[in-house]
Structure to design on (283 residues):
């Protein structure tokens, strides 16, 4: 990375979420490699169950929207995905925190899956509802998109080439390559062994998250809405209970008064001018 006039080849730290994602991916890759080596039939079934197969997802196999991202088809496939996850994801996690980073990563993974499923039913991109997709590339390219948008002017070293480039231009180049690759894969007579549609979906959802999701993340916003609705419900219950109690006491020739929040107003408070302090509490 390039900071000021000083060029450094230092690597980012292994942040908590990035470290666990790499360990889980590596563990699953080792397990599937052993399974395919010693029990090929079981390995094929495992791959079918946990890969992304659009035709199965629409029939209820919803776990595949996430599980496919932990499967990889070869050593270089997982190596480059995990390298990019570490190099670019660690910086995002340090700035966002573990929870928001994981939310973002899974958002891109699911977004890439949904894009793949949608396109598979159009016949474009060389994929069909029976096509199996594996790999964390959708989530990783979402991370790359976010890095380019947030740290666009930061220069990165194209290791092992002794050449640096601004992050925004690097991401633009990757997006262009993925788009051209997807177009070529969709051409008649071209087979597709790389999930370019999932890659484009990851880039798209990475862009959407950074540009349109609230700053504190989807979960924080959903939690705030939940507690807001819950508190509104409890305030409504308190006001209703206060009205019922007023009616009950009036039937016994006793008068009690509550404010608009359902808080009890002592008799001496009624003699004060409007705007005076009230006892009780307001939620």
């Amino acid at each position: 990375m390039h900071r000021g006039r000083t060029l450094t080849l230092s690597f980012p730290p292994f942040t908590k979420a990035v470290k666990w994602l790499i360990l889980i991916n590596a563990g699953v890759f080792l397990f599937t490699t052993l399974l395919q080596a010693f029990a090929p039939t079981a390995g094929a079934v495992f791959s079918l169950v946990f890969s992304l197969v659009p035709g199965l997802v629409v029939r209820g196999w919803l776990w595949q929207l996430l599980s496919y991202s932990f499967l990889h088809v070869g050593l270089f496939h997982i190596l480059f995905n995990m390298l990019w996850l570490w190099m670019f994801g660690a910086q995002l996690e340090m700035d966002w925190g573990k929870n928001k980073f994981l939310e973002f990563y899974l958002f891109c993974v699911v977004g890439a899956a949904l894009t793949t499923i949608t396109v598979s039913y159009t016949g474009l991109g060389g994929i069909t509802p029976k096509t199996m997709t594996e790999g964390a590339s959708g989530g990783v390219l979402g991370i790359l998109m976010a890095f380019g948008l947030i740290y666009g002017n930061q220069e990165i070293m194209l290791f092992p080439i002794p050449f640096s480039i601004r992050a925004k231009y690097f991401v633009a180049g990757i997006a262009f390559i993925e788009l051209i690759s997807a177009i070529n894969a969709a051409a008649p007579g071209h087979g597709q062994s790389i999930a370019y549609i999932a890659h484009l979906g990851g880039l798209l959802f990475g862009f959407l998250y950074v540009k349109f999701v609230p700053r504190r993340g989807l979960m924080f916003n959903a939690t705030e809405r939940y507690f807001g609705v819950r508190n509104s419900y409890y305030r409504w219950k308190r006001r209703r209970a206060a009205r019922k109690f007023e009616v009950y006491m009036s039937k016994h020739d006793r008068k009690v008064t509550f404010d608009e929040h359902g808080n009890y107003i002592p008799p001496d408070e009624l003699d004060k001018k409007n705007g005076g302090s009230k006892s009780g509490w307001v939620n």
User: Anything to note?
Assistant: The chain is about 60% helix and 5% strand. The domain at 2-213 is CATH 1.20.1540.10 (Rhomboid-like fold). The first strand starts at residue 2 and ends at 3. The chain has a mean pLDDT of 83.
